[in-house]
Amino acid sequence: RTPDMECALLVLGAGPGGYTAAFRAADLGLDVVLVERYASLGGVCLNVGCIPSKALLHTAEVIAEAEAMAAHGVSFGTPRLDLDKLRAFKDGVVGKLTGGLAGMAKQRKVRVLQGVGMFVAPHELDVQTDAGVKRVRFAQAIIAAGSQALKLPGFPWDDARVMDSTDALALADMPKSLLVVGGGIIGLEMACVYAALGSAVTVVELAEQLMPGCDADLVKPLQQRLGKRLAGIHLQTKVARATAQKDGIHVVFEGASKPARDVFDRVLVAVGRVPNGKRIGAEAAGIAVDARGYIAVDAQMRSNVPHIFAIGDIVGNPMLAHKATHEAKLAAEVAAGEKREWLARVIPSVAYTDPEIAWVGVSEREAKEKGLAIEVARFPWAASGRALGMDRSEGFSKLIFDAQTRRVVGGGIVGVHAGDLIAEVALAIEMGAEAADIGHTIHPHPTLSETVAMAAEIMDGSITDLI
Ligand code: FAD
């Protein structure tokens, strides 16, 4: 059949990877068609990920801070929750951003085609739209079809009380009791939100620590604080079975410690995400997809089919929006004929929990596993005037150095605003900075950013005594 549309570049999926690639390519002069199954652009991140979760976490933080003010002699009383208003605020934030994207697409003359896309040939994609199937012929393509929540078997998924992160962000109601299965970033962020809004939240995690993969020392202050705010945290524990009954979701646990309760009003399953590689007809275009659904790419984001690129969650971990956008610009520039390749050394990770945990580059865990010679400097926030003034001195900042070159190779921060503070450490690593470079940079006083400089000064030997 003859194609309904033709373009120089087809982008499949309009998440942070897809819209960034489409816009960059259009700015570089390519004629772009952007295919997205949902009416709203922005993908998981803007619609059901980063942005709505952070809007709700802000509310959770304010509630927690207001409670803490009682110890400073100021009481606000018990918060009264209007869930409809809170939901409307969150949806408003999402709407502003996704609406902005639609305008930006229009401005750049990116043609947006709404429907589910499936490759049918190396240069053709069929899109199932409301007005029937449209065939798009393209010279080059960028796949940015993202990922979706892993629906762990053994849960009654047909019952609305069993939720994935998208359902949890919808805030249908405020359950009296919530079980969060999975103590990773997404599970713990949602645990913070629901606990602040009044749910009794229990977390179960299979691994021996929360936030598996992250250095244990960074997790400790979070675990201590959550221990006080949640109904229970159970490590090395899993759900053996869950059944939907009238009075709630009945759960049978297995493992090191068992939660006090075994019937929950709602259950959030947050045990990871699976890439959408197996759902796009990749084989028809000859694109290699591995058993888990990932598409392998080279340093220019090209798949095994040279005119088809892939970016974002669908090419692998870490599944983070800022990784997707970085890859998107690269793929778009290469598609437009520029000679570029992946040059970033590190990708920061942040858990926007309370307190936040942020880390970048080599971790102590990784150094140990790989036998790397490192040195570590830690600055406790108990010695930061700003942290004390905020009554949040539980955090610390640490920098990790290569023992030979003395350069910063990693860092981790736990504490309020850790996510904002980690950017400096990422910059230091990218710039090949040594401890003295950070230590000699004048940081404003009194700020939390000084804690990073202090860690550098400890390493540099300019501070030996921490007050
Ligand atoms: P996606 O955002 O998944 O976009 C893919 C798009 O492709 C979707 O819109 C989908 O509808 C579309 N699509 C897929 N298949 C087809 C098809 N066949 N036809 C048409 N369209 C299709 N990351 C961070 O960096 N910071 C955070 O704070 C953060 N918080 C998160 C919180 C939650 C609850 C979740 C779930 C994720 C969070 N993430 C966060 C991860 C982040 O959302 C993803 O890494 C990011 O969205 C990946 O971008 P992407 O462009 O690869 O794919």
Describe the structure.
- The structure is a single chain.
- The chain has 13 helices and 22 strands.
- With 467 residues, the chain is an alpha/beta fold.
- The model has no long low-confidence stretch (mean pLDDT 97).
- It is globular.
- The N and C termini lie far apart (77 Å).
- Helix 3 runs antiparallel to helix 4.
- 32% of the residues lie in helices and 25% in strands.
Query: Which percent bin holds the helix content?
Result: 25-40%
Major β-sheet annotation? 7 strands, mixed
* First and last CA, distance: 77 Å
Rounded radius of gyration (Å)? 24 Å
Total number of beta strands: 22
% residues in beta strands: 25-35%
Low-confidence stretches: none
Mean pLDDT: 97
Distinct helical segment count: 13
The hetero compounds bound to this protein are:
flavin-adenine dinucleotide
Alpha-beta content class: alpha/beta
**Shape, per Cα inertia axes:** globular
GO molecular function: dihydrolipoyl dehydrogenase (NADH) activity; flavin adenine dinucleotide binding
Family: Belongs to the class-I pyridine nucleotide-disulfide oxidoreductase family.
Keywords: Disulfide bond, FAD, Flavoprotein, Lipoyl, NAD, Oxidoreductase, Redox-active center
Protein name: Dihydrolipoyl dehydrogenase
Provide key terms for this protein.
alpha/beta, five-stranded parallel beta sheet, seven-stranded mixed beta sheet, binds flavin-adenine dinucleotide, 13 helices, single chain, 467 residues, 22 strands
